[in-house]
Amino acid sequence: METTTPTVSFFDSIAPFVKLSPESRKALLSLLKKESLPKGHVLVPCGDICRSVYYIERGLARTFYLKDGKEITDRFRAENSFTCSMSGYVTNTPDGRQIELIEPSVIWSLPYVELEKLYDQFHDIERLGRYLITQEMVEIHRRLGELQFIPAQERYNNLVANQPSLLQRVPLGYISSYLGITQETLSRIRAKV
Asked: What gap in Å lies between CA 89 and CA 112, rounded to an integer?
């Protein structure tokens, strides 16, 4: 595993939302840990407490939980995005989800305990945290609404429109699970398109 300084892509990805001072950037850089990790690496095992926030510089992660012995995909996170278990962080308890890499990935991690210290020292980093939590809440609300109120065909169309690369990067079993449908239903939907 390698440890170097972060590339500009990390700061570029947050720049539209929060402008960080040079001091805040330096503080973040001193605590972020960069790792090149293989496909299948588990960032947070099922039943563990998520203790870090992860920024995906390159690669793809999947969050899933087990229901009746089946893996249910909850989300995908690709390049230039963050992943973690927000509920595990807030409650300091396991939330039953596992986060694993489904491609070789370059990941930056920052322990929550260190992030909390940065929040106390730097208000712009605190704003970044608030922004990320808000985005997480919006995403959860969108996802629940989609699963509850939107037909399977439309969920698939939304995925194709908003994240088309996932269809080439992710096994169809994960896609069908994410959409809340069987692989057979996914095959029928894809045949219509």
From this structure: 7
